[in-house]
TrEMBL record:
Organism, scientific name: Pontibacter korlensis
Protein keywords: Oxidoreductase
Residues at the active site: 254
GO molecular function terms attached to this record: succinate-semialdehyde dehydrogenase (NAD+) activity
Family: Belongs to the aldehyde dehydrogenase family.
Protein name in the entry: Succinate-semialdehyde dehydrogenase
Lineage: Bacteria, Pseudomonadati, Bacteroidota, Cytophagia, Cytophagales
Cellular compartments per GO CC: cytosol
Annotated gene: gabD
Pfam families per the UniProt record, alphabetical: Aldedh
UniProt-listed PROSITE patterns: ALDEHYDE_DEHYDR_CYS, ALDEHYDE_DEHYDR_GLU
Domain Aldehyde dehydrogenase: 17-474
Length: 482
């Protein structure tokens, strides 16, 4: 494989590229080919403590920089990301299996958060409150919360870092990043560019490890870490929340989903099909906001299934580095096994395979459509995280809303309708943090990203994102008129 100058084979702590104290190494594998791409330090709790200590030591000087100074470094980081867009996208693709066209899009998306928070750094406004007595003045300011830890997932190895550390760095928080064992190379490439941008030693740290549980526990229990941001499964999020209780750590948790996609009888069916395809099969169905259940009204059910099936059959599977390819591999054998189990269960309970349903080679699996899905199927309750789209029937608006909300999750939801009154009613009734109305792609740096119920809490991106890395301080000045 051609060696890339952004592929780093060491972790980064306190301004230095370092190895694990134990000398242990981990391997990173290309899911499309099975090829070992690189060997990296396999770090332990001793290593992460050093990173936390370095970040804590760097905090006073970094938080005391002006917002404009921090913004200038972030802006340089953004420029470097965009200058190295092709190489970053290639790294994303070879370690995550994401097709090249989507990886290029992810670099743009991820960079947008760095650009946005470079601008928002200068807008962390406070308040002057009208006093309750004549001799007092009441002021509210916002200050950096302190060392921020980011635990990121493999499905967006670049954007999930920038979406978390962009606001942290803008707010004056040094960061300790723990990328997943599947996709650490993207994190280290970003770190290389952050170093070039000029973040002071200790402000930006990246730990690589195969022992996620122990490193996560240290990040949760160490009192020097004041904020933890995690994207991943709900069960792991609950563990991290419990482990953070001893230090009452500030948390942002973006957890699992079970996104419904509702097609009403007055929808533009062709547009709904396009929205469903892009939302369901992006990164082979392996995103937190991917459609998991498609709910279609009886009178347009057959029409939608026919057109949707045809569109899915046109998706191209192949070499992930080919920009014309739309479907890549699943991330690992565990993911492949889950897809097969969900299809087997659905078929046993009466679902009809309209297209797909079979493995291709290695971790590749055919994009699949299941008609006549029912609520008793596993795929109705669990996030499949793969290229399988079950299509359910409903009769009334009330039934659609009930079916959509019948889950403990509440991250993303989608529906298609031309009736503006129905749009308002349904959007307000859906118990989700985000709703796409006649749109299958809703993520953007200018809007708040996050869920409710067991999909977590906290918001990333938008003007709200900075607040989750800041503390509000109230100052009361007395004796002003004396």
């Amino acid at each position: 494989m051609e060696q890339q100058n952004l592929i780093k084979t060491e972790a980064y702590v306190n301004g230095q590229w370092v190895k694990a104290a134990s000398g242990k190494m981990l391997e990173v594998t290309n899911p499309a080919t099975g090829e070992v791409i690189a060997s990296l330090p396999d770090m332990n709790r001793e290593d992460v403590r050093k990173a936390i200590d370095a970040a804590d030591a760097a905090w006073p000087a970094y938080r005391d920089m002006t917002a404009k100074e921090r913004a200038a470094i972030l802006r340089k980081w953004f420029d470097l990301i965009m200058e190295n867009k092709e190489e970053l996208a290639r790294i994303v693709t070879i370690e995550s299996g994401k097709v090249m066209a989507e990886s290029l899009g992810e670099v743009n998306y991820g960079a947008s958060f760095v650009e946005w928070f470079a601008e928002e750094a200068k807008r962390a406004y406070g308040d002057v409150i009208p006093p309750h007595t004549k001799d007092r003045r009441l002021v509210v300011i916002k200050q950096s919360v302190g060392v921020a830890a980011a635990i990121t997932p493999w499905n967006f190895p670049l954007a999930m870092i920038t979406r978390k550390v962009g606001p942290a760095l803008a707010a004056g928080c040094p960061v300790v990043i723990k990328p997943p064992v599947e996709t650490p190379l993207t994190a280290l490439a970003l770190n290389e560019l952050a170093e070039r941008a000029g973040f002071p030693p200790g402000v930006y740290n990246t730990i690589t490890t195969s022992d996620s549980s122990e490193i996560g526990k240290e990040l949760c229990e160490n009192p020097k870490v004041r904020k933890l941001s995690f994207t991943g499964s709900t069960p792991v999020g609950k563990i991290l929340m419990s482990q953070s209780a001893s230090t009452l750590k500030k948390l942002s948790l973006e957890l699992g989903g079970n996104a419904p996609f509702i097609v009403f009888d007055d929808a533009d069916i062709d547009e709904a099909v396009k929205g469903a395809v892009v939302s369901k099969y992006r990164h082979n169905g392996q995103t937190c906001v991917c459609v998991n259940r498609i709910l279609v009204q009886d009178s347009v059910y057959d029409q939608f299934v026919e057109k949707f099936t045809k569109a899915v059959q046109e998706l191209k599977t192949g070499d992930v580095l080919d920009t014309d390819v739309q479907v890549g591999p699943l991330i690992n054998e565990k993911g492949l096994k889950k897809v097969k189990e969900h299809i087997r269960d659905a078929v046993d309970k009466g679902a009809k395979v309209m297209t797909g349903g079979e493995s291709i080679e290695g971790l590749f699996f055919q994009p699949t459509v299941l008609a006549e899905a029912t609520p008793d199927m596993i795929i109705a309750r669990e996030e499949v995280f793969g290229p399988v789209a079950p299509v359910f029937r409903f009769s009334t608006d009330e039934e659609a809303i009930q079916m959509a909300n019948d889950t403990e999750y509440g991250l993303a939801s989608y529906f298609y309708s031309k009736d503006v009154n129905r749009c308002w009613r349904v959007a307000e009734a859906l118990e989700y943090g985000m709703v796409g109305i006649n749109e299958g792609l809703i993520s953007t740096e200018v809007a708040p990203f996050g869920g409710i119920k067991e999909s977590g809490f906290g918001r990333e991106g938008s003007k709200y994102g900075l607040d989750y890395f800041m503390e509000i301080k109230y100052m009361c000045f007395g004796g002003v008129n004396k």
